[in-house]
Amino acid sequence: MMGKVDFPCLGAKLVPAEKVIANEYNPNVVHSPEMKLLRLSIELDGVTQPIVVYYNKNKDQYIVVDGFHRYIILKDKLKCDKIPVTVIDKPLDERMGSTIRHNRARGTHQIRGMSDIVLKLSKKGWSEEEICNKLGMELDEVIRLKQITGLKEAFANHKFSRSWKEYEERRKESKKLKQLELI
């Protein structure tokens, strides 16, 4: 296959959702926060990648090779009656390999890179709450990522609580009370 690359993505088509089924071997698990983020991604950006499937002619079914969680969001959560698919024609063992390669190729996000993105979004005016909601992060994660990029710049738009001022005021009150006790 040196020098030759196929482009099955160019043959994407819409098929009835009830004809698309899960494969029986995918070991990938997506947890609830990531599923919520995937749904948000589809709602905000649309479907940017078709579901990769194998077409079983005998059963007139499309078996998911990659994109099962997108398929679940589209069919079960968003109630779509059509699903965009890209068909690959490979035997089962090769489809299993494709599933694993697709899952593993997504990789993980590097901390420094995520840190830079959070900082750039902050500079663009995104609030910490907006970053949390749109990127599927917890506030403590956003704060930790901001700390990596440099405190002064990263926290320029941060709304700090009054806890330090309250502590200072209590401390002053405590000193006054101690002085009164000495009199």
Account of the 3D structure:
- With 183 residues, the protein is an alpha/beta fold.
- It folds into 2 domains: 8-105, Conserved hypothetical protein from pyrococcus furiosus pfu- 392566-001, ParB domain; 111-182, no CATH class.
- 51% of the residues lie in helices and 13% in strands.
- The protein is built from 8 helices and 5 strands.
- It has helices at 32-45, 68-77, 92-105, 111-123, 128-135, 139-149, 151-154, 163-182; strands spanning 13-16, 20-21, 51-56, 61-66, 82-87.
- A 5-stranded mixed sheet has the order 1-5-3-4-2.
- Helix 1 packs across helix 2 (68-77) and helix 4 packs across helix 6 (139-149).
- The model has no long low-confidence stretch (mean pLDDT 82).
Write the SSE topology.
Elements: E1 13-16, E2 20-21, H1 32-45, E3 51-56, E4 61-66, H2 68-77, E5 82-87, H3 92-105, H4 111-123, H5 128-135, H6 139-149, H7 151-154, H8 163-182
Helix pairs in contact: 1-2, 4-6
Which short descriptors sum up this protein?
Conserved hypothetical protein from pyrococcus furiosus pfu- 392566-001, ParB domain, 5-stranded mixed β-sheet, 51% helix, 8 helices, alpha/beta, 2 domains, 183 residues
Low-confidence stretches are none
Largest sheet: 5 strands, mixed
Structural class: alpha/beta
Any idea of the CATH class of the largest domain? Alpha Beta
- Helix percentage: 40-55%
